[in-house]
Amino acid sequence: MRIALVGDRSPSVRSHTRIPWIMEALREHDGIALDPYWIPTTDVATGLDGFDGVWLLPGSPYQDEAGAVEAVRVAREGGLPFLGTCAGFQHMLLEYARHVCGLDVAHAENDPAGRDFLLTPLACSLAGHESLVRLTPGTLIARIVAARETLESYVCSYGLNESYRDALTAGGLVFSGHAADDGTARVAELPGHPFFLATLFQPELAERDGRPHPVISAFAAAVARHVAALRV
Question: What is the maximal distance between C-alpha atoms in the chain?
């Protein structure tokens, strides 16, 4: 089961250094053996054929915004299980806003000279912090975590410009996790897709009794289901 790890791999990004441990933990505890391949954002245009899932990892600003957005589009339109974390969350929203909702919007970190920003600096940076996330009952993230709220780790300073929330929701996206203090978006998902989920927090940083974060386990299980369905 081949998954594309989309991001500009760096030893200075802690989430990237955790990937080998996560893959081993998935094998040991979930019985799922994923075969991960790193795809730089600069290589996405020619590098996503034949993969069974796409994980858009942290590490912003990406070297190629267009490549990150294209990775999301390929997974969304192709029905591939998709997970976006931190910058992956931000660029999932960017792809959906542009290609589904028809919005001409930018990411303030990537394009500071842009006019209409979908992603803007958070009121308070979450870099290096933990924060409580409240989950909407009945959503995918709530079923995965099996709780109404969860304490999560962040390494980010940008999030959704909340003035665009209604437009994205009207386009079919569901915001299913929110900051406990001010209600701003922390998780988004797409109903009807085999698995299309993104979190502003970084589940890569979590370790629960030696197991990967439930979000990562759920993504791996979705990849396994996708491969099994192809073999029928």
Answer: 50
Contacts of 27 (CB under 8 A, 6+ apart): 33
Which pair of structure tokens corresponds to residue 138? 């009945």
Q: Which of 9, 24, 128, 140 is nearest to 81 (CA)?
A: 140
Of the candidates 12, 59, 61, 202, the residue with the CA atom closest to the CA atom of residue 126: 202
pTM, full prediction: 0.96
CA distances to 59, 77, 114 from 150, rounded to whole Å, are 23, 30, 34
What torsion, rounded to 10 degrees, do the Cα atoms 145, 39, 95, 223 define? -40
Give, in degrees to the nearest 5, the angle at Cα 69 between 108 and 186.
Answer: 60
Q: How far apart are CA 136 and CA 138, in angstroms?
A: 6
pLDDT along the chain (232 residues), means of 10: 96 95 96 97 91 96 96 97 98 98 96 91 84 97 97 94 98 97 96 97 89 97 95 79
CA-to-CA separations, 211 to 29, 133, 202, in angstroms, rounded: 7, 20, 15
